[in-house]
């Protein structure tokens, strides 16, 4: 099956499902919900398009349309981008509350994000950082305000409110599910820049849907700017321009932080320390019960940061691991790397209703576990996912682990996410003092920002130094024997075989099947290079230099063998140099795979143990934390 066929099937299935949900709920909820649902779907389409493509794009070789960045450099840029995406909503939320209103903030954010994707489509390093900057700032205006706008349509205590946000959350995951199947496939097959272009078009669709909702009156009276309370006429004129001026000021700042992302480490480290100190000082202003509830938030904030730090490696270290070390053949289908980014949102859509039902049933029976135990369970599932992946090492062939183990990792991580994430959001609103609920929620989301940046340092432990490999004696021994070269990439092998003088009548059915399997897989074909006459003479020479000179001057032919060792054909002599270069290139790739597999498995195993260790600590602290919650589950 071609990736585009699967993409089309997914789109049709989602369209039917969305139509069913809207039809089922159209009389229960206002039209605004469904419009904002679609706007958020397209915004997530844009964001997850970036998440699926970014690291692959940066590390891809220049000849394949990427920048050829080292793994470490790519991880640093990705981490800074992810960290800033979770920081800028603090600014965008304040500007919307005080100056813009939700509508203008959403429109401005959507346009900035579309501009960011279209800037990335220009496909050069100068505009690359600028495109990321637009995406970060645009997300800050868009992300916090569309959720806040939905809340305006439901009064506090309205039983339909939870249902509305469930539908909205489904839009988020549908966007996250479709993006790797669409932007990812287009980016990998047609060229990375076309993936960004597709994401930009999706963002513009979201923008037009929002404009249509405004003009149709579906947004009612909500989302307009607050009253302009400036005292002078000049101040009244300047006030609406402030958010746009701040945007201009943020552009060089964000650009600098993405380019020199080590600064983000210092900034977030200072911010995290300041937040913890602030919370501990604030807790002293309240009575014993509220004080201990704030302590609970601080403790769980530390553990949730560990969870998201390990979890968010999906877009960086795990993404490259999938590219290099996962046999992406599922049956006869060779899945693009980006398709695996759809696994998590797919599992969320499947398991979220089940978990919602489980918590309700346990709650009604008085058996629902307290938050620290849910958090600990989430950490165990997270760690188990990494340990399951490492068991795939025993089944690896040529540095490639079966895709089953990666899918199992994502399934366990998703169940862990559902055990921890919604619980944390709900818990903060219940444990926080009424006057600072909004601030506490912002602090809670800060953990995701810190997690992205912290994940950079973990991901760097999985990096492989190509230059070091090439200098390694073991690598040199792999390419010294020019008589047998075992690492011709399958695509090249297939193409050259088609162009060769193969006598098709000599190839039996089993040979055709074998050759087609090699051509359609990520595995390497076994080839033999024969060097006529002069090679035979060269091996008699005394010095290595004379031998190599004779080999270089020889006629090299590429012979294709059948199952019975009969020569079926040969590659034209003009292809000889190309074959040698490709075989050496294949050796580099093979070496990278073997080395990165060993290194990745070592790091993932440690992550699994650390996550489970944190869970054990949290289980031990469970009784104390539960007591400090004073009756709140």
SSE order and pairing:
Elements (H helix, E strand, L loop, with lengths): L2 H23 L5 H29 L11 H30 L1 H20 L3 H27 L8 H31 L1 H24 L17 H6 L3 H18 L2 H22 L4 H24 L5 H9 E2 L1 E2 L2 E2 L8 H22 L6 H21 L9 E2 H29 L5 H24 L5 H6 L1 H8 L3 E6 H10 L9 H11 L4 E8 L2 H5 L5 H10 L2 E6 L5 E5 L4 H53 L5
Parallel strand pairs: 1-4
Antiparallel strand pairs: 2-3, 5-6, 6-7, 7-8
Helix pairs in contact: 1-6, 2-3, 2-6, 2-7, 3-4, 3-5, 3-9, 3-16, 4-5, 4-7, 5-9, 6-7, 6-13, 10-11, 10-16, 11-14, 11-15, 11-16, 11-23, 12-23, 13-15, 14-15, 14-23, 15-16, 19-20
Descriptive overview:
With 633 residues, the chain is mainly alpha-helical. Among the domains are: 1-256, MFS general substrate transporter like domains (Growth Hormone, Chain: A, Up-down Bundle); 468-593, no CATH class. Helices cover 73% and strands 5% of the residues. The chain is built from 23 helices and 8 strands. The strands form 3 sheets. The chain has a 4-stranded antiparallel β-sheet with strand order 5-6-7-8. Strand 2 (329-330) and strand 3 (333-334) form a beta hairpin. The protein is globular. Residues 473-497, 499-539, 550-577 and 579-589 have low confidence and may be disordered.
CATH superfamily of the domain at 1-256: MFS general substrate transporter like domains
Number of helices: 23
- Determine the CATH topology of the domain at 1-256: Growth Hormone, Chain: A
State the low-pLDDT regions, or none: 473-497, 499-539, 550-577, 579-589
Distance between the termini: 48 Å
- Specify the CATH class of the domain at 1-256: Mainly Alpha
Structural class: mainly alpha
Basic shape: globular
How many strands?
8
């Amino acid at each position: 099956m071609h990736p585009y066929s699967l993409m089309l099937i997914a789109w049709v299935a989602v369209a039917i499902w969305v139509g069913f949900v809207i039809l089922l709920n159209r009389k229960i909820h206002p039209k605004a919900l469904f419009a904002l649902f679609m706007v958020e779907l397209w915004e997530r389409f844009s964001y997850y398009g970036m998440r699926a493509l970014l690291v692959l794009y940066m590390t891809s070789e220049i000849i394949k349309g990427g920048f050829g960045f080292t793994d470490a450099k790519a991880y640093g840029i990705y981490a800074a981008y992810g960290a800033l995406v979770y920081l800028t909503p603090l600014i965008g939320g304040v500007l919307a509350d005080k100056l813009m209103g939700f509508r203008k903030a959403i429109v401005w954010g959507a346009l900035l994000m579309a501009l960011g994707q279209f800037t990335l489509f220009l496909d050069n390093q100068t505009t690359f950082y600028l495109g990321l900057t637009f995406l970060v700032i645009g997300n800050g205006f868009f992300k916090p305000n569309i959720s806040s706008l939905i809340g305006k349509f439901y009064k506090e205590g309205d039983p339909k409110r939870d249902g509305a946000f469930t539908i909205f959350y489904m839009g988020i995951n549908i966007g996250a599910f479709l993006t790797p199947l669409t932007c990812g496939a287009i980016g990998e097959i047609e060229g990375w820049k076309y993936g960004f272009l597709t994401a930009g078009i999706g963002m513009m669709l979201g923008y037009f849907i929002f404009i249509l909702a405004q003009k149709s009156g579906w947004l009612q009276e909500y989302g307009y700017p607050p009253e302009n309370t400036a005292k002078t006429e000049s101040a009244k004129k300047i006030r609406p321009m402030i958010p746009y001026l701040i945007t201009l000021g943020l552009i060089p700042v964000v650009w600098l932080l993405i380019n020199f992302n080590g600064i983000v480490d210092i900034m977030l480290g200072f911010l995290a320390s300041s937040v913890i100190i602030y919370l501990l000082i604030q807790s002293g202003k309240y009575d014993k019960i509220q004080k201990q509830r704030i302590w609970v938030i601080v403790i769980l904030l530390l553990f949730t940061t560990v969870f998201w730090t390990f979890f968010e490696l999906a877009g960086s270290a795990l993404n490259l691991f999938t590219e290099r070390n996962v046999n992406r053949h599922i049956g006869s289908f060779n899945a693009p790397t980006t398709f695996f980014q759809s696994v998590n949102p797919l599992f969320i859509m499947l398991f979220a209703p089940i978990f919602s039902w489980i918590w309700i049933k346990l709650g009604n029976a008085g058996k629902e576990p307290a938050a620290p135990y849910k958090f600990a369970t989430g950490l165990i599932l997270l760690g188990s996912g990494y340990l399951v992946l490492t068991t795939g090492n025993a089944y690896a062939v040529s540095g490639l682990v079966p895709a089953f183990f990666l899918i199992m990792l994502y399934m366990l991580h998703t169940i862990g996410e559902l055990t921890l994430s919604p619980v944390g959001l709900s818990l903060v609103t219940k444990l926080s003092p009424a006057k600072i609920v909004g601030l506490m929620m912002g602090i809670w989301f800060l953990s995701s920002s810190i997690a992205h940046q912290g994940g950079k340092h973990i991901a760097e432990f999985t990096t492989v130094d190509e230059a070091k490999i090439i200098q390694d004696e073991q690598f040199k021994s792999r390419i010294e024997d020019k008589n047998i070269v075992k690492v011709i990439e399958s695509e090249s092998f297939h193409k050259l075989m088609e162009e060769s003088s193969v006598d098709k009548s000599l190839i039996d059915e089993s040979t055709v099947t074998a050759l087609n399997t090699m051509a359609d897989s990520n595995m390497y074909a076994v080839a033999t290079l024969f060097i006529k006459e002069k090679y035979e003479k060269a091996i008699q020479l005394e010095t290595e230099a004379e031998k190599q000179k004779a080999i270089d001057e020889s006629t090299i032919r590429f012979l294709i063998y059948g199952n019975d060792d009969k020569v079926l054909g040969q590659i034209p002599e003009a292809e000889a140099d190309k074959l040698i270069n490709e075989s050496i290139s294949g050796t580099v790739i093979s070496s990278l795979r073997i080395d990165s597999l060993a290194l990745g498995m070592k790091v993932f195993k440690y992550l699994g143990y650390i996550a489970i260790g944190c869970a054990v600590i949290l289980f031990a602290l469970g009784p104390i934390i539960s007591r400090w919650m004073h009756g709140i589950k």
